[in-house]
Amino acid sequence: MTPPETTATDGEVEHQHAIKESADLLRFATAGSVDDGKSTLIGRLLLDSKAIFEDQLESVESTSKSRGYDYTDLALLTDGLRSEREQGITIDVAYRYFATPNRKFIIADTPGHVQYTRNMVTGASTADLGLVLVDARQGLTEQSRRHAVILSLLRVPHLVLAVNKMDLVDFSEDVYNRIHKEFTSFATKLSIPDLEIIPISALLGDNVVTRSEKMPWYSGPTLMHHLEHVHVASDRDLVDVRFPVQYVIRPKSDEFHDYRGYGGQVAGGVLKPGDEVVVLPSGMTSKIAKIDLFDKEIGEAFPPMSVTVHLEDDVDVSRGDMIARVNNAPKPSQDIDAMVCWMTNEPLRPRQKLAIKHTTRTGRAMVKDVQYRLDVNSLHRDQETKELGLNEIGRVQLRTTMPLLCDPYSKNRTTGSFILIDEATGVTVGAGMINSGT
Ligand SMILES: Nc1nc2c(ncn2[C@@H]2O[C@H](COP(=O)(O)OP(=O)(O)OP(=O)(O)O)[C@@H](O)[C@H]2O)c(=O)[nH]1
Q1: Whose CA is nearest to atom 2 of ligand 1?
Q2: PROSITE patterns attached here (predicted)?
Q3: How many helices (H) and strands (E) does the chain have?
Q4: What is the pTM of this model?
Q5: Shortest-distance atom of ligand 1 to CA 206
Q6: Fewest CB within a 10 Å sphere: which of 32, 110, 320, 380?
Q7: What is the interface pTM, i.e. ipTM, of the complex?
């Protein structure tokens, strides 16, 4: 029997197209200790996937020669780009773009010498994949463990441990197996849904883009093959509708009376015209009249699309409000239980007051308790020290002055996270992942 013919509606076609678009893009964050070879690896990825321009390569080759190297120092490519961007920015993350015929990539590159959790958290918070480098001669270090812990707390769904400089350990299977064993046993204590451990030489290119002939014992994918094929579209929450309103487009005159829209980025679920929705915190309900993407009307919107939503009724909606589905809305919470990464010298302590930014709202919060501090090496929970120092991670209870419309971070990385800001200086001093709100 022939299956009935189906015709896709415009909305479905757009949906498929947008899913393909988001699947075509991989955001990944790199992490490693100083000199593990991160810059060299990024240079190698760009070079072997032919994502760099001839003139850039020529300048790197001539600089390498003038410095007396008998190889092309690919780190120059990355570091050159990086130093330009480092100027005057507090959060030291360089974003780099490249593409292969199979996928587009955005790399959030955090310099290894600045061992700040802040950079790592900023770079990895929106990543689909985290790439942690270790030097095969050293194996795991405290910093590689810390990076794995942070990636797991940030629920980065895919993790790659690249065991680099395999050429310096004679491409030894034993060395790889030892690091593999040590890391997998550490990783069982973390939540890492997908882990790949790849032996590479960033300098020589083994298993980066081309398969290494010197490591016939390794049967897994090359790094590039994995980056191109890792499945990311299903990582997004398409069930619970969450639309934090970023701005309200008001009618300028009577002529545009109909054009009241709410702009923002979809943080969860699929929105469609005709859906019954609730506006929080007011609790007023309405229906979605239409959804615009730039100046085009679309049939569906889902994460991470930035759209303008129009409602059928003239309800009162302001910046910081959230549009959700009736019967499936987040509960407003003022008592927040979260894992916090602290990013400044002055410790986080009970009774401290801070500004808190959650989705599109900013308010104030007081630290009620530091329940424990997490030792990133042993994963031991220290309940004695009631504070968090620079780069430390712990479980913290906060009381906010306004209710947050939040979800657990495990359900939604956008509505489940917040940043803490020093009220006097305006500097970001912490990042939080919500366990629960009551
Ligand atoms: N033998 C060998 N040397 C490597 C390899 N990868 C990197 N190196 C060398 O290790 C040194 C450090 O590499 P970088 O790429 O600058 O290290 P990094 O981790 O990016 O360091 P930062 O830029 O300071 O963050 C350089 O001398 C590289 O040439 C490798 O696979 N094999």
Answers
A1: 165
A2: G_TR_1, G_TR_2
A3: 8, 21
A4: 0.74
A5: 31
A6: 380
A7: 0.96
